[in-house]
Design brief:
alpha+beta; 28 strands; binds adenosine monophosphate; 5-stranded mixed beta sheet; 31% strand; 9-stranded mixed beta sheet; 564 residues
Length: 564
């Protein structure tokens, strides 16, 4: 953290006013890294899927979260000290003080506090545990305004725009909709630095599928990947995804597909494979509507932390929004072949309906014909005519069985959601990349970021801080920048110290302008990881660097290595 703050990756927000837990600023380097992470994510989860990206508001009207259930149940159980007034998230406090995994219910927390006579650090007693809703509220418009919430996840913006998105995809499943953006959770006691934030960045993909088709045509790409799984009974497996599906450890192929894809993405971004596992939610931990849920967890100095959640949310969200908005969010799915079905049909007796219902008789008859029933012996039914509900006895209709041809059916799609916490992934990458080694008998701090993730890709350094050297170095900086390479120039301090500075911020390559450059137009490229150098001509520099930055090729493929 000391390095990250000093070098300008990130720091606490509102520093000059004393700071506030749960908020961080991304400095120039942290911001650069997170942007690269976002772009890599887009490549994996938007460009390489039948998917699009949208952008919806962070302030939402209340109705959205009443429907989704967040307004009522997006809560944690909190405990407040009666003496000093400090509030803690109950399960975290219990884990910290007693090392017990407590259920997040009022009853469970109360029982533990009583059994263990748990007290606050100040010695005070805790009052009754209570539910604390994690959503920030706001008010929209002047005066009393209309109640609104800051979104606690980006996903809901996608669900409520589902009709328009379905139109965009010409009414055909499956398709994915992604969103990258801010989410807000008023965490109770965010003491874990950059891990638990009150304002953070999510990248979410909602992949809508037919409920009976939870497969993916590209599963073959990942099925033989060996993954580290911890199932809901705490059994560990290191098996292929194909085997995990076949043995029923992962609920279905589509979840396995996204686990495989997520794993490849994280490794490509710089998460270490040996510190990355997928843990299945236990039955009592999983959201009640989810079929199966897996978290990608990374081992960091905070322990194992959840960096991605991959869940089968079923039709829960769309169903809830259908119920609350009255909109039809179903998808018409055509059968491969039309099918013949038998169904029961009501045949109204117009001669009897006429005298009884007079002017309304026709409307009643039509309403009866539209009714769906499954009991041929039903003795009365209810229909609504002109907003009025009427009961119709069996003497007014008979029931017939008819055979019909049906072209398709309407279904509420299911959704598989990989949800990425970009801040936690960014932090994990930094921790997993940070190393100390020995170079020329001295300890060196180096950030072994993947080349394509580095916020500063190339540093151009004149060997001496003198006229010609500076001039040529600046020309090279211009050349690299116009080729789209993030380049920094630095002429202060000894060349060794400058190399160390760029090693520490993870810059993969340093280009040095030395005496020979002035004679024959060649420069040296130094590789951060091996500290090897090769000499190339200025004309080929852009091509060589571009190739090096997009691959893991060894620098010695481009010239004879030497050490200064
Ligand atoms: P969830 O919807 O709770 O599964 O969260 C999705 C992802 O967002 C998690 O995997 C985390 O990486 C991230 N996340 C959740 N809460 C926070 C937070 N308070 N601060 C930072 N990241 C978070």
């Amino acid at each position: 953290m000391e390095m990250l703050i000093r070098r300008g990756f990130l720091w606490q927000s509102f520093e000059i006013y004393g700071g506030m837990a749960g908020f961080i600023d991304y400095g120039p380097l942290g911001n650069g890294l997170r942007r690269r992470l976002e772009n890599l994510w887009r490549e994996f989860f938007v460009i390489n899927e039948r998917a699009v990206e949208i952008d919806t508001p962070t302030v939402n009207v209340e109705e959205v979260f009443v429907a989704s259930g967040h307004a009522e149940s997006f809560t944690d159980v909190a405990i407040e000290c009666q003496k000093c007034g400090k509030v803690f998230r109950a399960d975290h406090y219990i884990k910290e003080k007693l090392n017990i995994e407590a259920d997040c219910t009022i009853e469970a927390v109360k029982e533990i506090i009583e059994t263990y006579d748990l007290k606050c650090d100040c010695g005070g007693s805790f009052g009754e545990p209570f539910h604390f809703n994690l959503m920030f509220t706001t008010s929209i418009g002047p005066g009393k305004g209309k109640k609104g919430y800051l979104r606690p996840e980006t996903a809901q913006g996608i669900f409520i725009a589902f009709r328009r998105l379905l139109d965009y995809f010409r009414g055909k499943l499956p398709f994915g909709v992604a969103q990258i953006g801010r989410a807000y959770r008023n965490e109770i006691s965010p003491r874990q630095g950059v891990i638990r934030l009150r304002e953070f960045n999510q990248a979410e993909l909602e992949y809508f599928v037919h409920p009976a088709e939870k497969t993916h045509p590209n599963f073959g790409r990942y099925e033989n990947d060996v993954v580290w799984l911890v199932d809901k009974f705490d059994n560990e497996h290191r098996i292929t995804l194909r085997e995990a599906v076949e043995r029923g450890i992962i609920a279905h192929e589509l979840l396995a597909y996204f686990i495989g894809k997520t794993r490849r993405f994280l490794i490509k971004a710089g998460v270490r494979e040996d510190r990355l596992r997928f843990r299945q939610h236990k039955d009592d931990e999983r959201a009640h509507y989810a079929v199966d849920c897996w978290d990608a967890e990374a081992l960091t100095s905070y322990g194992w932390i959840e960096i991605v959640g991959i869940a089968d949310r079923t039709d829960y969200d769309l169903r809830k929004h259908m119920e609350h908005s009255g909109e039809d969010l179903r998808v018409f799915v055509q059968f491969k072949e039309p099918i013949r079905v038998k169904r029961l049909k009501i045949v109204p007796d117009l001669r009897k309906l006429g005298p009884k219902f007079r002017k309304k008789a026709k409307a009643v008859a039509e309403a009866l014909e539209r009714l769906e029933i499954d009991d041929p012996n039903v003795d009365k039914v209810r229909v609504t005519v002109d907003g009025e509900e009427v009961e119709i006895g069996r003497e007014f209709f008979r029931v017939e069985e008819v055979e019909e041809t049906i072209q398709g059916e309407k279904v509420i799609p299911h959704v598989i959601e990989p949800s990425f916490g970009l801040d936690r992934i960014t932090y994990t990458i930094l921790e997993h990349s940070f190393e100390k080694d020995t170079v020329d008998g001295e300890e060196r701090r180096v950030l072994r970021l993947k080349r394509w993730m580095a916020p500063v890709q190339v540093a151009v350094l004149p060997l001496l801080s003198k006229g010609d050297f500076i001039e040529v170095a600046k020309e090279i900086v211009e050349m690299l920048r116009s080729a789209g390479i993030y380049t920094e120039y630095d002429d202060s301090g000894s060349i060794g110290r400058r190399y160390r500075r760029f090693d520490e911020i993870g810059t993969p390559f340093c280009v040095t302008v030395d005496h020979q450059t002035l004679e024959d137009g060649t420069v040296t490229i130094r590789d951060r990881d091996t500290t090897r150098q090769v000499r190339v001509s200025r004309d080929e520099l852009v091509d060589v660097l571009k190739e090096l930055l997009s691959t893991e090729k060894d620098i010695t493929e481009f010239g004879e290595p030497f050490k200064l």
